[in-house]
Design the sequence.
C-alpha cells in the first residue's frame, strides 16, 4: 500500500465531499485509525450541516418584487438608455468630424499631433465606455479577427496590449474614425466594471515620436505618446498619474512587437 | 435576454442566502442582491469565463465588500435585525431550533474573509477554484482561510457548550473581532 499522505486540504475536501471516490475511501480509512482527527472532521461536518440548515429558510422565502428579474430587465429597457445617448453623441461627433474635415485645409483649426490623438481617445472613451449594449464591435473572444481587421485598416501590424497584470481584461475593440484616419480602439474592464480604452493610430506628421503626456477632461484622464510614427492614448475614469503604470506597460509591449 | 433569465433566475435564492448570511440584515442583503442583478443585466454581454454562478457571486461579493468598507469608514451602525435576542439575551440554547439559529451568531463572530470562504464552500457548494475566483485570491489561500474559519467556528461552538456564564465571550474572540464587522 503506498498511499499519499493525508493532508489538511484532504480533510476539508472530505467534509465538502469533493474528493475522488478513491481518495474519499483513503481518508475514511485514515479517520478510522485516528479517532482524534475523526472527531475534528465530524465537528466540521456538523458545522456544515448546521449552517446549511440555518440558512436554508432564507433561500426558500418568496422573492420580493424588487428581485423579480424579468422586471429588472424590463425596467432597464424602458429607461432612456445610455446606448441611445451614445448613438446621438456618435452622430454629433460624425457631423462635427465631417464639418471639421471640410474646413481643415482652409483653417487648420483642428489640433494636430498628440493633442489631437488625446482628444480622439477621450471622445471615444466618452462615447463607448458608458455603452452597455455594444461598447465594442468585435469581442475579445474574436481577438484574432479584431487584430487582422485593425491591422489591415491601419496598414501596419497592431498588437492588442495585454493588461491582465494590472487587473484589466480585454473586452474587445473596434475601428473608430478620426480626422487623421482610422484608429484602433481597445476596451478593457476590471472586476469592478471600470473601463479603460487604448486608442492607437499612425501619426500624420507632427509628433512622430513624443514622450508621454497627460491629459484630463473632467473626471476622465489619459496618457498619450508616440513611438516611431504610431500614437497611443490610454484613457480611463481616473487621474492621469494613476494610469501611468498601465501606460508604461502598453508602451513596453508595443515596443516589443 | 432570454438566456440570461434562464440562467440567472434560478440562482437568485442562493444569492439572497449568501448576502443574508454575510451582512445579516434582510433589507441590506436584498438591496445588495438587487444591485447585483441590475449589474448582471447590464453586463450580461460583457461576461466572459463561462460559469454564471461564480460570475454572479463575484459581483455580489464585491458589492458586499464595498458596503462593509463604506460602513466601516463612516462608522455607520448596520442594524442586525434577525438574531438580536439570541445574541444579547440570555436564552440558552435549549432546543435544536435555537442551536441552528445560534450557529449564525457564532458565524458572525468570524472575520469577514473567513466567513465568506466558509459560506461559499460549505453552503453555496462552490468549488475551491470558483471560491478563489469570487474572492480574487489563490486557491491555497482559500484552503487556509477555510481551515481557520472551521477551527474558529468550532471554538465558538465549544465555547458556548462549556456553559460559560451568560454572554461572556472569551477574550481571544473579542480581540480578533474584525473592525469592519457590522460596524461594531
Sequence:
Amino acid at each position: 500500500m503506498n498511499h499519499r499522505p493525508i493532508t489538511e486540504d484532504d480533510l476539508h475536501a472530505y467534509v465538502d465531499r469533493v474528493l475522488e471516490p478513491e481518495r474519499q475511501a483513503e481518508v475514511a480509512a485514515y479517520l478510522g485509525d485516528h479517532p482524534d482527527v475523526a472527531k475534528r472532521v465530524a465537528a466540521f461536518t456538523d458545522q456544515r450541516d448546521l449552517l446549511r440548515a440555518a440558512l436554508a429558510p432564507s433561500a426558500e422565502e418568496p422573492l420580493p418584487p424588487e428581485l423579480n428579474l424579468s422586471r429588472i430587465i424590463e425596467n432597464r429597457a424602458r429607461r432612456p438608455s445610455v446606448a441611445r445617448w451614445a448613438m446621438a453623441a456618435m452622430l454629433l461627433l460624425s457631423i462635427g468630424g465631417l464639418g471639421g474635415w471640410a474646413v481643415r485645409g482652409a483653417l487648420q483649426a483642428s489640433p494636430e499631433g498628440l493633442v489631437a490623438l488625446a482628444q480622439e481617445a477621450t471622445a471615444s472613451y466618452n462615447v463607448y465606455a458608458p455603452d452597455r449594449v455594444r461598447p465594442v464591435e468585435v469581442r475579445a473572444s474574436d481577438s484574432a479577427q479584431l487584430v487582422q481587421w485593425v491591422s489591415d485598416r491601419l496598414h501596419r501590424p497592431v498588437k492588442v496590449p495585454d493588461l491582465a497584470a494590472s487587473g484589466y481584461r480585454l473586452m474587445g475593440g473596434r475601428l473608430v474614425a478620426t480626422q487623421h484616419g482610422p484608429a484602433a480602439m481597445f476596451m478593457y474592464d476590471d472586476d469592478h466594471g471600470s473601463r479603460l480604452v487604448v486608442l492607437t493610430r499612425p501619426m500624420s506628421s507632427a509628433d512622430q515620436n513624443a514622450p508621454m503626456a497627460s491629459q484630463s477632461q473632467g473626471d476622465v484622464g489619459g496618457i498619450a505618446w508616440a513611438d516611431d510614427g504610431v500614437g497611443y492614448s490610454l484613457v480611463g475614469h481616473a487621474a492621469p498619474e494613476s494610469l501611468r503604470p498601465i501606460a508604461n506597460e502598453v508602451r513596453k509591449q508595443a515596443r516589443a512587437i | 435576454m432570454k438566456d440570461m433569465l434562464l440562467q440567472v433566475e434560478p440562482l437568485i435564492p442562493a444569492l439572497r442566502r449568501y448576502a443574508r448570511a454575510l451582512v445579516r440584515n434582510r433589507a441590506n442583503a436584498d438591496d445588495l442582491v438587487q444591485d447585483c442583478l441590475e449589474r448582471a443585466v447590464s453586463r450580461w454581454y460583457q461576461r466572459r469565463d463561462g460559469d454564471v454562478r461564480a460570475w454572479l457571486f463575484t459581483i455580489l461579493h464585491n458589492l458586499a465588500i464595498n458596503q462593509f468598507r463604506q460602513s466601516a469608514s463612516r462608522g455607520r451602525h448596520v442594524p442586525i435585525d434577525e438574531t438580536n435576542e439570541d445574541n444579547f439575551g440570555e436564552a440558552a440554547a435549549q432546543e435544536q431550533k435555537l442551536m441552528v439559529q445560534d450557529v449564525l451568531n457564532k458565524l458572525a463572530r468570524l472575520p469577514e474573509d473567513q466567513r465568506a470562504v466558509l459560506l461559499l464552500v460549505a453552503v453555496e457548494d462552490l468549488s475551491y477554484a470558483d471560491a478563489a475566483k469570487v474572492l480574487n485570491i489563490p486557491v491555497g489561500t482559500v484552503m487556509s482561510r477555510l481551515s481557520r474559519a472551521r477551527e474558529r467556528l468550532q471554538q465558538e461552538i465549544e465555547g458556548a457548550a462549556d456553559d460559560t456564564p451568560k454572554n461572556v465571550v472569551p477574550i481571544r474572540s473579542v480581540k480578533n473581532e474584525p473592525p469592519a464587522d457590522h460596524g461594531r
Chain A touches chain B at residues 8-9, 12-13, 15-16, 18, 40, 43-44, 47-48, 50-56, 58-61, 63-64, 66-67, 69-70, 72-73, 76, 132-135, 140-141, 169, 171, 189, 191-193 (CB under 8 Å). Residues 35-60 of chain A form the longest helix (26 residues). Strands of chain A lie at 138-139, 169-178, 181-189, 195-202, 210-217, 220-227, 230-236.
